[in-house]
Task: inverse folding
């Protein structure tokens, strides 16, 4: 049975490792579908290093907004919720589920926890971002299945080294 608990730094390494495992299948597809210069610009030292650094920053600097899914004593997922009171909006900033625990309702439970956190803070909507590439298609489908509506956004990059 999955239990949701507040983040404790003792989970840090396990959460970083399961995050890398969860995104392992996504990044090769992303690399093949985006401009090479953009991929190289974002992932100078490789995607694993960038993701580990970015996620460690969230875990270390925003612990009050993090909830962890446990299966017994083992972390199997986590969510980071940010609040944007200026827009009365909560943001599911990071959501990760261990590959061995995917498609078992862990993500939905974490999302509901994030929604409750935002509602308790007086937010009236919540948003989540993900990639438009094929590797992120399962995430988009999951978000849409629980009522998220896609906002049309386009982000462009230009190589200035030419």
Result:
């Amino acid at each position: 049975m999955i239990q949701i608990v507040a983040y404790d730094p003792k989970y840090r390494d396990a959460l970083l490792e399961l995050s890398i495992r969860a995104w392992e299948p996504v990044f090769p597809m992303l690399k093949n579908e985006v401009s090479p210069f953009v991929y190289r610009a974002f992932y100078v030292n490789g995607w694993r290093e960038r993701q580990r650094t970015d996620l460690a920053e969230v875990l270390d600097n925003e612990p009050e907004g993090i909830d962890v899914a446990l299966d017994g004593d083992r972390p199997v997922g986590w969510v980071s919720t940010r609040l944007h009171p200026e827009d009365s909006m909560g943001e599911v900033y990071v959501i990760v589920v261990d590959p061995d625990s995917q498609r078992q309702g862990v993500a939905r439970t974490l999302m509901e926890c994030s929604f409750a956190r935002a509602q308790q803070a007086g937010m009236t909507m919540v948003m989540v971002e993900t990639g438009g590439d094929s590797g992120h298609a399962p995430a988009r489908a999951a978000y849409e299945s629980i009522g998220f509506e896609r906002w049309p956004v386009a982000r462009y990059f230009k190589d200035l080294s030419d």
